[in-house]
Amino acid sequence: MIRPIPFANALTLTATGLFLFLIGLREVAPVFFVYFFNAQFFGADVASLLPSRPGFTRLLADLLVMLVGAWLFGWCWAFFYNRWGK
């Protein structure tokens, strides 16, 4: 049995860590960021679709949406896993 709230919190913390890592990588080493980001999509040039310089407000809004979405996804995953896994 998976406990939904701790699972959702763990998934949210992991997603936040990846988000902050990628934002930091984009600021510190933009060339490696493009390589690393595109590697997640099997080499497709997805990094070119990102805005050139997102503002602080945009990053904060993206982080907030990602936090809520990750938490809800984690909670639903654990809830339905427990319900259908019996």
Overview of the structural elements:
The protein starts with a helix and ends with a helix. It is built from three helices and no strands. It has helices at about 5-30, 30-40, 55-85. Helices cover about 75% and strands about 0% of the residues. The protein has one domain (about 5-85). By secondary structure, it is an all-alpha fold. The mean pLDDT is about 90.
Question: Briefly, what is this?
Answer:
By secondary structure, this protein is mainly alpha-helical.
Write the SSE topology.
Layout: H1 4-28, H2 30-39, H3 56-84
Helix pairs in contact: 1-2, 1-3
Structural class: mainly alpha
Give the CA-based shape: elongated
Taken in chain order, the helices and strands follow as HHH
Mean pLDDT: 92
Throw out a few tags for this protein:
elongated; 86 residues; 74% helix; mainly alpha
